[in-house]
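Example 3.2
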Amino acid sequence: MKRVLFVSALTAGIVAITTGAAYASQYIAYEGRGFTGRSVVIDACGPSNIPYHGSYKWYGDGQSGRMYNQPNAQGLMHFKLASDRNAEQRTPVGWQSIFIEC
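Structure, written as tokens:
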């Protein structure tokens, strides 16, 4: 009986850890207007350069994104994407990098 309870608790812990890791804010950069062409998902904490500038989608799921007009999150922050709201733009953007706050 104790062994079954231990296994159930262990399984619940693994599910909780895995579920927590699955949800993170994501910036999806598209090559073309209207979410077309090649795309890349950026969801790593810290600075990331954005390779495509045709359009974007942001899924705010706990972390906010600071947007920069220069590579490597240098210079002044231009805009901040909310940690609890989604956003998108179908037309080109000038942002060159993002810093996801974790």
